[in-house]
Amino acid sequence: MNIGEVLAALKADFPQASASKIRFLEEKGLITPQRTAAGYRKYTEADTDRLRFILALQRDQYLPLKVIKDYLDAVDAGEHPESLPGGLTLTPRSVSDQLAQEIAGHTRPLTRAEIQGLTGASAQLMDSLEQFRLIEPDETGRYSEYSLKAVRSAVILASHGIEARHLRMFRVSADREMGLVEQATAAMATRRDAAARARVAETAREISQACLALHGALVSEAIAEADNS
Fold first, then answer.
1. How would CATH label the architecture of 107-165?
2. Residue spans of the chain under pLDDT 70
3. SS3 of 5-61
């Protein structure tokens, strides 16, 4: 297949995929298409499945390309890596409904009633989470998969007596982290081509993962110290 045919095959699952994005992934060593004598790229079904795998992990697990590449390099070398972050043990194949569920359940926008049904959240909790900007419905009144995750977390915290008003600091922290991301990617963001946007998105993922890892390390250290005191 040529790159246009690959994009057509990916369109249903990944409408934002572009030729520049695919070339960026090639530049990073995640995919290596064959070349004709004239130098044109030619893609196989296996290449397309590999692209689906990479794009799904980026979209649904927010994994940095380096993590995905290291995993794929190990698979390519005939090794059997134990898992990806989050415990996933997968190899490249078509993104089916089953794979979508395995990769953290990317979902369609959900109604308020569906969110409550899936999480057990009360109407009062939903109202409070919206008030403190921890979840935000779209223009149709529906919620994203990110809101679903936020509500699930809030329900668990509420069971421990931690109310939505106590969670405002997470909104403030997220806004500050986005400020760091925007500052770090400002130079790249001045370019408007698709390859530059892909680099901005990947850099943003790496920064956000580093921020989450740092936060987790600090909290884990504090808990360990409290346990030993």
1. Orthogonal Bundle (1.10)
2. 82-108, 192-195, 229
3. HHHHHHCCCCCCCCHHHHHHHHHCCCCCCEECCCCCEECCHHHHHHHHHHHHHHHHH
